[in-house]
Amino acid sequence: MREKLSYQCQACGAQASKWSGQCPDCGEWNTLLESAVAVPRRSARGAQLHGVAELAARIVDADEVAAEAEGHKPTGIGELDRALGGGLVPGSVVLIGGDPGIGKSTLLLQALAAGGDDERPLYVTGEESLRQVTLRAQRLGLSTERLRLLAETQVEQILALAARERPTVMVIDSIQTMHTDALQSAPGSVAQIRESAARLVQFAKQGDTAVILIGHVTKEGAIAGPRVLEHMVDAVLYFESESDSRYRVIRAVKNRFGAANELGFFAMTERGLREVSNPSAIFLSRGDSDVAGSTVTVVREGTRMLLLEIQALVDVSQLAHPRRVAVGSDANRLGMLLAALHRHAGIATQDQDVFVNVVGGMRIAETGADLPLLVAVVSSLSARPVAADLVVFGEVGLAGEIRPVAYGEERLAEAAKHGFKRAIVPTANKPRRAIKGIQVTPAAHLGDALALLK
Ligand code: TYD
Ligand code: MG
Hints:
Strand order of the largest sheet: 6-5-7-8-4-9-10-11-12
CATH topology of the largest domain: Rossmann fold
Distance between the termini: 76 Å
Number of helices: 13
Oligomer: single chain
CATH superfamily of the largest domain: P-loop containing nucleotide triphosphate hydrolases
Bound molecules: thymidine-5'-diphosphate, magnesium ion
Helix content: 25-40%
Radius of gyration: 26 Å
């Protein structure tokens, strides 16, 4: 290796040979910092030395590779496996990001302790001392017979030990504390994080060790520093929660080995994280009293149904351009729905500020929330509560028509299970057979649906 001086953006990790005030890649200002980058001596000449025959031998039939293709190995924590698409794949790298204090270390300590008898887990801690980790494991009552711990932040050391130890799963807590000797820049810098991660990824790919990198999230929401980390790994999970809520949601934003849409749910307790395998009603906060501006809907998250409360606050605006604020749903879509509400149901909100919030910090990405959102808006505007035992779902089209959503019957069944007695749904979602305990009223048009509320 030889060293070359270059400049690196501390926001996106891009390299530049010259300094400039603005990063040519991401456009951030004053983020280019001098960094010593190791340039491996290799390629051109090295490649020529290989005979063509030797190179040809490196090309293999896809069949042969597929024969030993990845199998997910369950971690022993069902909700984590769900987000991972079935479990950990040997030789893969997973990045788990989240705010400090959300429970990343706790979750992975629990996951390593829950592994089967054939697992050889290694927990590398760069943030807490061995004593702190052991005390936590004891307090959580974890079985730590097979769990091996290492307090180290230097990647070369870790890899040398891991090569000897050959763990089946290795957790790096956290990638921000790691550094490599190959670079001179300070630990914690983008270059260090990226290079350390690259070496760990290379290690995972060469063997059967599944590597889990823990990463802290910056205030911008990206896993601290280099977004490039997300591209280097096989799966990226985010661990999130609403402030002051004890519930935690783990979400895959990328997964090379499985679907990236399943959520895992946990509750933080004094005995660590507890799985919530039936999360459908955990975000419902309201009691039995009827509240103006609040509607309950059923959305499909992954393969499960979730009951969510949508709140709206509509109030006379003092502004020339009244505010449209959507938390947990799409603000552009809110604007569009309010226009449909005006044109097709004659309800104007031009002189009103409209705030919409999905309770519990969840994000709704599906169109089934259109109708309940407008029901909440109308309820707030008219100061008339929606019945507490009513659920609503349905997409609203630009012509004011109510369009069906997928899995209508499953949604209704879930609502009935949680004691909802009435539902307003798109006509095409009316179940062929009655669902016990819930009276379903179909609506074909926005006007019909709103009339049903009276
Ligand atoms: P931690 O796993 O250290 O978070 P991270 O690694 O993401 O920074 O979790 C720390 C928080 O979790 C801390 O505020 C205390 C809380 N906690 C509990 O409530 N119960 C528990 O059993 C444990 C271990 C932590
Ligand atoms: Mg931690």
